[in-house]
From TrEMBL, chains A, B:
It holds the Pfam family Peptidase_M24. Belongs to the peptidase M24B family. Its cofactor is Mn(2+). This is Xaa-Pro aminopeptidase. It catalyses: Release of any N-terminal amino acid, including proline, that is linked to proline, even from a dipeptide or tripeptide. Residues 9-138 form the Aminopeptidase P N-terminal domain. Gene3D superfamilies: Creatinase/methionine aminopeptidase superfamily (3.90.230.10), Creatinase/prolidase N-terminal domain (3.40.350.10). GO terms for cellular component: cytosol. Coiled coil: none annotated. SMART domains: AMP_N. Its EC number is 3.4.11.9. One of its GO terms (biological process) is proteolysis. One of its GO terms (molecular function) is manganese ion binding.
């Protein structure tokens, strides 16, 4: 945590955010930052990552502190570092320095927090030591796996309504995350010709992120088995006919995330079948982005992607039928089984810690339809929202070999024709798209996605 | 977790380990692997790392399973992956395949574990979801922050006695970790001339580790402020007169750790004062390694380092007095305030999760002396132990500006002479040393540590 690198406008940004919160709730909120989680023994810790709700209002990655927000005022509860900690951790900014940086109205030691909890709402953090403390001080269970209740739910809804759209302070950070994410993907493409393992491409990509003093915003996917949607293995050898799918994002020093996927040919050249499907996924991607503007339902963007993919598969002779009908019966989900994207902000699936409160407009619930159940966002778009657009095509054995699904879609899929596309295991193209007042802005547009340029970047 | 990459001798190694455990205890032991810890929301997880005690007997990084060891037999409690998980995570090895790989004598679903807990000892894992389950099933508190009691303490002592010395299976992995750690440090030196930030050197080093499909065994220290002992900041710019201290280690796919520190000049050339101190730290390092053999007290190795450093500082005119007397009064700790090293194995501070049970011979306790309190290992050395040797010299403001310490050592330190060494903020040289039957073997010997070669590697 480095104060010197923090933009001087931080205090203004934070003040504005808590004023907006004060317009929505009439009770105090206490947000804990959380502590580090142990890895294999208590002193060997995973890198500290504070609660995103805390970060939104406090701006800095401060471990083991709390802020109390009421009527637009911020009280910082924090203990000054012990003198002995200077030996191990160096001189850290003290409470008053932090308070000045974030524009706190008052500061107190953590021991006084217990006298300020009355009628306060909170949101559970992820680490056990801190949610235990939250539960004890507030005298009720505050658990990350429980949906918020009562005033905690009211607080969560208020914060969601703020975090759904991004202010300038957030956008400055999100553009930084996007830029480094783009650079990581370019490095991954460039490293592929010399790489023998997936792990080597991952190293080139994460190396860029580490070199910018950022972290990955989620565990990277860098795989020649793109059909495994959450693949976190990196041991496979790269073969000339493989496609490499990389879903890698950078997170800035103050916690804002990027999330991009590209798919490129290991050999530097798509096969004809790979190029057909690649261009189909890209067509879906481009159609979705072209449709983004305020007022459009994100669910309709998802259905648009499904329709473009279904139509493309009809054109390729893989599907038989009419695209709208195919989508109506969820046939697209055989090859595109996930949602078209999600909110992006301080979390890669922004605010997923409070369930679907952020992703789903009040009164809406997840569908249990095969083609819709994984849709993470179902709201009308508004200026300032940042969403991902990430259509894909996958040949997932667990789906395509499922007896029930094969029976259901027996007359729709031309399995013989499909077998000609066996060198297309998984393709996804994902960008980060800001909803503007007139349409959209792709924050990750500096990363080409047309097949020819992707080939060139891989060969360079 | 990839079965195909696992050496076929794994089952034999594991069988031998549990036979040896059976010779030490006459009650069953249940070891849980643990689960992933959440980062900023429940589905965004830190990389999974099982309990090291589990890994020692089960060999594979399996989440959310348990093994029951009794009389040399291993029962594997594990649920087969749900069919739906194949969509997201791909086809994983099933319970029977895992059981064959690790040589399990029986397999059961996790739901049957509750019927096998009678009289069983365990060791707490680090993640809250699992230690909650441990506590519930065993009907007593099993918490990672509590020292083990009763049969749990007996089990911990038995496992410690096994893990204190490494078998061939362990050494094979520890040599792999050492080799990749060495390669990472060479890459860091080579990247320094082009680097502007600490973070860029870190990226080059961790890139090597990631490219080998390994992880870091602890959060890397890569800093021009080596005087901050646990520095985890990487934002400083590299200046020509700086020394860069890098404490970075690789951990293999089955969890075995490397731990190496080198210090090199950013410019590729030590200043005369830097070289004086560097060579002094190296002399302490070499003297300690030369002394390692079975039967030698590790505490005496620490005191040898302290004495070499004290004598060197006398020779340089920084200390006045006799080296033995200076060590007796802890004067060396002004500049060398930590211990000479620690056990290394599946944990970078091996078995530190059970406190000083591993580090301290039964009946011994930590000293509260300024010069000894951070000594992590205090036992006679035995063949098969792997220890680090990591002397250092630091000018820590929190120590050197401490009023009490300055008063205590007023007549010992020539502060004016010391001020001539202001370009030496922190130097450490650390290697991983195996105790052999006749002496020692430095597993990280492939990484040069003499000043000239370090300069050459930095300039290459
Ligand atoms: Mn995404
Ligand atoms: Mn060490």
């Amino acid at each position: 945590m480095v104060i010197s690198n923090i933009d001087s406008s931080l205090a203004n940004t934070l003040s504005h955010r808590r004023q907006r919160l004060a317009n929505l709730i009439d009770f105090p909120a206490i947000l804990w930052s959380g502590g580090s989680s142990p890895r294999n023994f208590p002193a060997n810790l995973f890198p500290f990552r504070p609660s995103s709700h805390f970060l939104y209002f406090a701006g800095l990655q401060l471990p083991n502190v709390a802020i109390r927000l009421e009527a637009g005022k911020l009280e910082l509860f924090m203990d000054d570092p012990k003198p002995s900690s200077a030996l191990w951790h160096g001189e850290m900014p003290n409470r008053d320095e932090i308070a000045q940086t974030i524009g706190a109205d008052a500061t107190k030691p953590m021991s006084e927090l217990e006298f300020s909890v009355e009628d306060a709402a909170t949101i559970a953090v992820q680490d056990a030591a801190t949610w235990t403390q939250q539960s004890q001080l507030l005298n009720r269970w505050v658990l990350p796996q429980n949906p918020p209740q009562g005033i905690d739910l009211e607080l969560a809804k208020a914060i969601v309504s703020l975090r759904l759209t991004h202010d300038e302070g957030a956008l400055t950070e999100l553009r930084k995350a996007a830029a480094v994410t783009v650079a990581a993907h370019k490095a991954g493409m460039a490293a592929t010709p010399q790489a023998k393992l997936e792990a080597e491409v991952r190293a080139a990509m994460e190396g860029v992120i580490i070199a910018h003093n950022m972290t990955t915003s989620y565990n990277s996917i860098v795989t020649v088995h793109g059909e495994v949607l959450h693949n976190e293995q990196y041991h496979h050898r790269l073969q000339p006919g493989d496609l490499l799918l990389a879903d890698v994002g950078a997170e800035t020093e103050t916690g804002w995330a990027g999330d991009v996927t590209r798919t490129w040919p290991v050999s530097g050249k798509f096969s004809p079948t790979q190029k057909e499907i690649y261009n189909l996924v890209l067509a879906a991607h481009d159609a979705c982005i072209a449709k983004i503007r305020p007022g459009v339902e994100y669910g309709d963007i998802h259905l648009l992607a499904a329709t473009v993919i279904a139509q493309g598969l009809v054109d390729l002779g893989i599907f038989q039928g009419n695209a709208e009908d195919l989508v109506e019966m969820d046939a697209h989900a055989l090859f595109f089984p996930h949602g078209i994207g999600h909110l992006l902000g301080l979390d890669v699936h922004d605010m997923e810690d409070v369930g679907d409160l952020a992703g789903y407009e009040e009164g809406r619930q997840r569908s249990d339809r095969f083609g819709l159940s994984y849709l993470r966002l179902n709201r009308p778009l508004r200026p300032g929202m940042l969403v991902t657009i990430e259509p894909g095509f996958y040949q997932v054995p667990a789906i395509l070999n499922d007896v029930n699904l094969r029976a259901k879609y027996e007359n729709i899929v031309n399995w013989e024709r499909l077998s000609q596309f066996s060198d297309v295991r998984g393709i996804r193209i994902e960008d980060d798209v800001l909803v503007t007042t007139t349409g959209s802005e792709v924050l990750t547009a500096a990363l080409p996605n047309d097949a020819d340029t992707v080939e060139t970047l891989t060969n360079s």
